[in-house]
Design goal:
It is built from 15 helices and 10 strands. It is of the alpha/beta class. A 6-stranded mixed sheet has the order 2-1-5-6-10-9, sandwiched between helices. Strands 3-4 form a two-stranded antiparallel sheet.
């Protein structure tokens, strides 16, 4: 019987590896792969839409209508402030822009804006905001007749608000006669010359008469718009808006602290650390001597430097801070008025009542009723 020869062995190095079968794809992975990318796109789009609604909420039914009047030479930054601040109040305001003649408006920069509305919309305004416009036009003794005609369209009872040189138009229309008002500090002398019947205060950020508000330059437009929210809806909503706009809900002092003036040549010591120290101790009966001692200054030097930096005397500043904290407690707590007075450093409830009446024109109990009632959970009417 013939025997077959033994098969030759192939050296391992030369052996051809047997191909391995590819692992079977699981039903889950094969099924999810085609839809994974569209799903992620949808998630991103939904998040972007939510953020857009947060930053630009639709007006609620019956929202307070604000019209911003863009005049020739308008400043773009201030023109946008009412939209940005009031438009961040969760749909509580409907903010519209208008021109005096329904046509595009040249700004003081190298661009032209086209408001969506003409002067006819001013008759629908609950609040009219006049942002600053070209100084050469705003400071003219005879303002643009078109601007005055547009202003005359505003219905009786509507609230008027000016930013910076916008006060010149209100004054030219006679709406500030016999009243305290403000504008940019650099224009104060010219304003007084043109409108001697207006009591100009160039040391504050804004002045509120209820029906007419005037504010100082540039960023004070943010201050006055936040003040409108606070007056209309309380501090809780105003603080939410301030956080959304990444600005402080209040600014200490007035525009006096920004006025150019020669500073004393005695170094750069600031009263800022002492102000911070005092804010942590408002419940205590702080005296000028104690404040000056903390700042390591004489009382005279401290008082002078304090006013140079804040535009206020130390006593007035302390009262302002105590009232600010008292208002917050009245809005956000059920503490009795006597306890609120003690917590913020007023000696008696009577003292708190007197100071609050001078600032806000109401008693603490009335203030609490007014500014706690409008509170709403975000997203509700």
């Amino acid at each position: 019987m013939a025997i077959a020869p033994a098969a030759r062995r192939v050296p391992r190095a030369q052996a051809t590896p047997r191909p391995r079968p590819a692992p079977a794809a699981s039903a889950t992975s094969t099924a999810s792969t085609p839809s994974a990318a569209p799903s992620r796109v949808r998630d991103v789009a939904e998040r972007a839409a939510r953020l857009d609604r947060l930053m630009h909420p639709d007006p609620r039914p019956g929202a307070h209508k604000v019209v911003v009047l863009a005049l020739d030479g308008v400043y773009p930054f201030e023109l946008g402030i009412p939209h940005r601040v009031l438009g961040s109040a969760d749909g509580r305001y409907e903010v519209l822009s208008a021109s005096a003649d329904g046509r595009p408006v040249r700004t003081d920069s190298d661009l032209t804006v086209t408001p969506a509305h003409g002067p006819e919309v001013l008759a629908e305004a609950d609040t009219l905001v006049i942002p600053p416009y070209a100084i050469s036009r705003a400071s003219a003794a005879a303002p643009d007749p078109q601007a005055l005609a547009a202003l005359a369209r505003v219905r009786p009872g509507a609230r008027l608000v000016s930013i910076c040189t916008g006060a010149f138009l209100l004054a030219a229309a006679g709406l500030l006669d016999g009243r305290r008002a403000t504008t940019h500090w650099a224009l104060s002398d010219h304003f007084r010359e043109l409108f001697p019947r207006v009591e100009l205060d160039a040391g504050v950020l804004f002045v509120d008469h209820g029906d007419v508000l005037t504010s100082a330059g540039a960023a004070s437009g943010v201050d006055v718009c936040l003040h409108l929210v606070r007056q209309d809806h309380g501090s809780e909503v105003a603080n939410q808006v301030a956080r959304c706009c990444v600005v402080p809900p209040y600014r200490d002092g007035g525009q006096a602290q920004y006025i150019e003036r020669p500073l004393p040549p005695t170094g750069g010591t600031s009263t800022g650390p002492t102000r911070d120290w005092a804010l942590q101790r408002l419940e205590l009966p702080l005296t000028l001597d104690e404040l000056a001692a903390h700042a390591a200054m004489s009382t005279r030097t401290f008082a002078r430097r304090f006013r140079e930096e804040t535009g206020l005397s130390p006593g007035r500043w302390l009262t302002q801070q105590r009232l600010r904290r008292a208002r917050h407690l009245l809005e956000s707590s059920d503490l009795p008025v006597e306890r609120v007075a003690h917590e913020v450093g007023f000696a008696t409830a009577t003292s708190l009542r007197r100071h609050l009446a001078a600032e806000a024109g109401v008693a603490p109990s009335a203030y609490r009723r007014t500014f706690r009632a409008p509170f709403r959970t975000p997203g509700t009417s």
